[in-house]
Amino acid sequence: MGCVKLVLFFMLYTFLCQLVFSSALPHLCPEDQAHALLQFKHMFTFNPNASDICGFPSPKTLSWNKSTDCCSWDGVHCEEMTGQVIELDLLCRGLQGKFHPNNSLFQLSNLKWLDLSYNNFYGSLISPKFGELSSLTHLDLSHSSFTGLIPAEISHLSKLYVLRIRSDDPYWLRVGPYNFDLLLKNLTQLRQLDLDSVNISSTIPLNFSSYLTTLPSQKEFSNFPTWNTFLYLTIP
Ligand SMILES: *[C@@H]1O[C@H](CO)[C@@H](O)[C@H](O)[C@H]1NC(C)=O
Ligand SMILES: *[C@@H]1O[C@H](CO)[C@@H](O)[C@H](O)[C@H]1NC(C)=O
Ligand SMILES: *[C@@H]1O[C@H](CO)[C@@H](O)[C@H](O)[C@H]1NC(C)=O
Ligand SMILES: *[C@@H]1O[C@H](CO)[C@@H](O)[C@H](O)[C@H]1NC(C)=O
Ligand SMILES: *[C@@H]1O[C@H](CO)[C@@H](O)[C@H](O)[C@H]1NC(C)=O
Ligand SMILES: *[C@@H]1O[C@H](CO)[C@@H](O)[C@H](O)[C@H]1NC(C)=O
Q1: Position 225 pLDDT exceeds 50
Q2: Residues with Cβ < 8 Å from 218, sequence gap 6 or more?
Q3: Sequence spans of domains, the chain
Q4: pLDDT score of 76 more than 70
Q5: Which residue spans within the chain are E strands per DSSP?
Q6: Which residue from 57, 85, 122, 153 has the highest number of Cβ atoms inside 10 Å of its Cβ?
Q7: Residue 162: beta bridge partners?
Q8: Where is the Leucine-rich repeat-containing N-terminal plant-type domain (predicted)?
Q9: Mutate to test the pocket of ligand 6, among 180, 207, 208, 210 (most ligand atoms within 8 A of CB)
Q10: What is the pLDDT of residues 84-109, one digit of tens each?
């Protein structure tokens, strides 16, 4: 009998603990990161036509606001224990505007997953600051109208598993002469590399697929080592 009481007591105790704990921590998301996200939101306008592939996206990003925990915002994921923002999934969000190097997103230094594809950052350069997000394992900047040289700093992201920078037009994005080599040599965890319609001016080594992490059975790639590169590699 005493034993049952004891068990009941512990069940009640843990229940109360959880209650107190969860009400004491209503906002898991660190304030500076919520602030950075709100700043990010204000740097862009919403245009449902920003990318014609997306249909008509709903302005969910725009519902980000201070009255709720940023970990519950659409497209934002936090690490459970620490509340740090680790994932930002902004694919097809109708974001439109210039992506300046002072973008507050670069303050989110714990990001592991970043998807900015299918928005419209018309004519923005890919900032070398992407190379400072050193925890990234997944980076997708495809079809968002970035232009210019893909910065060599991308090869600092040595934890990258997936790198996708597809361009709409081979005249828009380039990889510099030695940078493709750098990417292959430094991104040792890479499983998927997608640079469709990016102008790769360096010679692509014939054995380039062996640089991608070689666990499994199947490698799939198409390779036209000229300026109009279609390069898509994946190791499932
Ligand atoms: C988006 O496209 C639709 C249909 O083409 C058009 O009616 C609408 O005005 C456009 N909206 C914006 C914000 O450009
Ligand atoms: C704040 O965000 C919540 C959840 O997304 C939403 O329901 C609410 O309407 C928003 N408030 C404002 C003032 O935008
Ligand atoms: C960021 O840089 C751009 C271009 O240099 C500038 O127009 C803008 O005001 C800056 N924004 C902030 C918040 O500093
Ligand atoms: C390769 O990755 C390491 C570790 O992130 C970094 O320190 C180094 O600068 C990178 N080298 C190049 C050439 O990008
Ligand atoms: C690709 O880059 C090379 C070297 O920078 C340049 O000569 C060529 O015109 C570029 N091709 C396109 C389609 O932009
Ligand atoms: C690819 O070939 C080059 C020279 O032909 C060699 O130095 C390099 O080690 C090879 N890389 C891999 C991953 O097999």
Answers
A1: no
A2: 235, 236
A3: 28-234
A4: yes
A5: 45-46, 76-78, 85-89, 95-96, 113-115, 124-125, 138-140, 146-150, 162-164, 173-175, 192-194, 199-200, 220-223, 231-234
A6: 85
A7: 138, 192
A8: 31-78
A9: 207
A10: 999 999 999 999 999 999 999 999 99
Tokens 């709409």 — which residue?
168
Cα 233 from chain centre:
19
Residue 160 has pLDDT above 70, yes or no: yes
Neighbouring C-alpha atoms within 13 Å toward the C-beta of 72: 8
* Topology at the third CATH level for domain 28-234: 3.80.10
Residue where the block lists tokens 């009400």? 23
Tell me the pTM.
0.81
Which residue in 32, 196, 213 sits closest to 117, CA to CA?
A: 196
Three-state DSSP class for 233?
strand
d(CA 101, CA 138): 20
Token reading at 179: 């940078």
* Ligand 3 atom nearest 102 alpha carbon: 1
Q: How far apart are the CA of 44 and the centre of ligand 3, in A?
A: 12
